[in-house]
């Protein structure tokens, strides 16, 4: 562990309301408002201020936590606190929380940054005998005092759009990056219209924009063209509102400089532990994104059990993430304050890493994606044959009563409610820190119908017979609840079932005679 009790620290403000002379607790990365080491008049009397002029722009093509933290100058230690949920960000700092909700997104970010001045305390404050309220030093409420603040402003323009399955992300982002590089040089005509090269106009108009910044705008930009206008106005906005600049970086002096008995930051969290924590959260987030994409498919709407299982899986991932963040938030202050060794955090990270591998959550999600792809291929073929896909019992009754003859391709409960998800959810909620090594694991592909040759062949065979049926009969498809997995064909005339279902809805007795079954009730969402 690296000793930190006597070191000056620089931290990113990320939208937090810092000011010189303010107290700060590095154990949990929180400001301590209302308390000060100096009287107000003494604090302001000897304050130093000097210009620090700088501006630059940067294009960010990665959406990882690592790269967003780097863009905001967030240290590994502060990032650990952010990952745990202990740090609330504002202004441009909200860029850290702007996460995509889907894997099928193209995203490029334009960053603008400007510095204006540095404000700092002097030796009239920092002399050991110049502290007005010495009793504050030993109260244990803070570990550091803010001795200098760099002021300025930042702005992030996040350009984002959803991709179709045939589009290449790198290609789309590459074209957008080239267009963004030209923003500082784009001309704005007298009427306020923006001149964009025809080569890029089609690309950029499909992107939406989300603004995170420290500049007060009358209206936030939502399109690429609006972003160009705002970006080019930022230097003038900054010049006209110099009193409205915000803290970007702050420098902290340990309180042990004034009194050796003051609370101290004993050690920082090791960088490799922070990286592992980041990876655990990113792995869980990746599962959430894949689940979100799966829930958007028409299959998740048409097959209620699939939609229900995906919803339960997303809730499970959310709860797992919250548990992990709570665990981090509990351990970080203890380690930093020297009350706990980082071996406990190391073990906790190992448990989560092992759990994510052993529980087969990734395998579960892969199987859901395979099932959705297969069902999508089947339903697409049915649609090409003029088959109408129904979503409810009401829709079926309406169709069979409005047509003389109807043939219906029926999916029979291919997916059932997943006990693994409910068992794991119950287990995780038993305690604040459940033993992940004893948590239930997924059974993998053992329950999936598409790994069963009999069921899969039956679905394909039934579909082939359905496709060969008379084109003069109206064809439908929907999901029914049944004891069997697979598919069958139902025929209706004037609203009545006239032909016993072929396929999963019927079976043979021991003498080879076909046994008749009543049509199963329609499956509805719970």
Automatic annotation (TrEMBL):
Q: Which Pfam families match?
A: MACPF_SNTX, Stonustoxin_helical, Thioredoxin_11
Q: Which residues form the SNTX thioredoxin-like domain?
A: 387-500
- Basic and acidic residues composition bias: which ranges? 491-511
Q: Cite the SNTX MACPF/CDC-like domain residue spans from the record.
A: 10-176
Region Disordered, annotated ranges: 491-526
- Give the matching InterPro entries: Cytolytic_pore-forming_toxin (IPR052090), SNTX_MACPF/CDC-like_dom (IPR056072), Stonustoxin-like_helical (IPR048997), Thioredoxin_11 (IPR040581)
Looking at the record, the residues that make up the Stonustoxin-like helical domain are 280-373
Write down what this protein is called: Neoverrucotoxin subunit alpha-like isoform X2
Record gene name: LOC114854265
């Amino acid at each position: 562990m690296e000793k930190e009790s006597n070191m000056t620290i620089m931290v990113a403000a990320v939208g937090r309301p810092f000011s010189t002379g303010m107290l700060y607790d590095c154990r949990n990365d929180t400001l301590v408002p209302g308390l000060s080491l100096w009287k107000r008049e003494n604090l302001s009397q000897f304050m130093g201020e000097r210009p620090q002029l700088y501006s630059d722009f940067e294009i960010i093509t990665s959406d990882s936590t690592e790269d967003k933290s780097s863009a905001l100058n967030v240290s590994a230690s502060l990032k650990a606190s952010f990952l745990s949920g202990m740090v609330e960000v504002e202004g441009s700092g909200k860029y850290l929380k702007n996460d995509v909700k889907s894997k099928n997104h193209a995203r490029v970010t334009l960053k603008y940054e400007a510095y204006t001045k540095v404000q700092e305390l002097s030796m009239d404050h920092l002399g050991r005998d110049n502290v007005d309220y010495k009793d504050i030093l030993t109260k244990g409420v803070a570990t550091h005092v803010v001795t200098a603040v760099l002021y300025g402003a930042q702005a992030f323009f996040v350009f984002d759009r959803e991709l179709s399955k045939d589009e290449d992300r790198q290609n789309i982002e590459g074209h957008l990056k080239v267009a963004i590089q030209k923003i500082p040089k784009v001309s704005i005509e007298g009427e306020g219209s923006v001149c964009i090269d025809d080569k890029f106009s089609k690309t950029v108009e499909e992107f939406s924009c989300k603004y995170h910044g420290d500049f007060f705008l009358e209206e936030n930009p939502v399109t690429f063209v609006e972003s160009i206008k705002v970006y080019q106005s930022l230097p003038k906005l900054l010049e006209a509102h110099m009193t409205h600049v915000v803290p970007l970086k702050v420098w902290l002096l340990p309180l042990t400089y004034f009194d050796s008995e003051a609370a101290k930051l004993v050690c920082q969290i090791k960088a490799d532990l922070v990286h592992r924590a980041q990876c655990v959260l990113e792995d869980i987030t990746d599962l959430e994104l894949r689940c979100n994409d799966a829930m958007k498919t028409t299959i998740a709407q048409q097959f209620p059990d699939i939609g229900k299982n995906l919803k339960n899986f997303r809730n499970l991932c959310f709860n797992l993430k919250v548990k992990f963040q709570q665990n981090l938030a509990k351990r970080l202050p203890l380690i930093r304050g020297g009350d706990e060794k980082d071996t406990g955090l190391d073990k906790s990270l190992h448990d989560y890493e092992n759990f994510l591998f052993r529980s087969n959550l990734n395998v579960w999600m892969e199987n859901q994606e395979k099932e959705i792809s297969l069902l999508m291929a089947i339903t697409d073929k049915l649609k090409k044959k003029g088959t109408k896909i129904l979503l409810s019992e009401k829709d079926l009754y309406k169709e069979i009563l409005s047509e003389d003859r109807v043939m219906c391709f029926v999916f029979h409960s291919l997916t059932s409610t997943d006990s693994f998800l409910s068992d794991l959810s119950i287990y995780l909620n038993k305690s604040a820190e459940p033993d992940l090594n004893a948590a239930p694991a997924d059974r993998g592909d053992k329950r999936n119908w598409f790994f069963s040759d009999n069921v899969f062949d039956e679905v394909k065979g039934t579909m082939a017979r359905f496709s060969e049926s008379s084109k003069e009969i109206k064809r439908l498809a929907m999901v029914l609840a049944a004891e069997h997995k697979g598919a069958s064909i139902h025929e209706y005339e004037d609203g009545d079932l006239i032909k016993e279902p072929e396929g999963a809805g019927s079976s043979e007795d021991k003498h080879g005679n076909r046994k008749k079954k009543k049509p199963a009730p329609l499956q509805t969402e719970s």
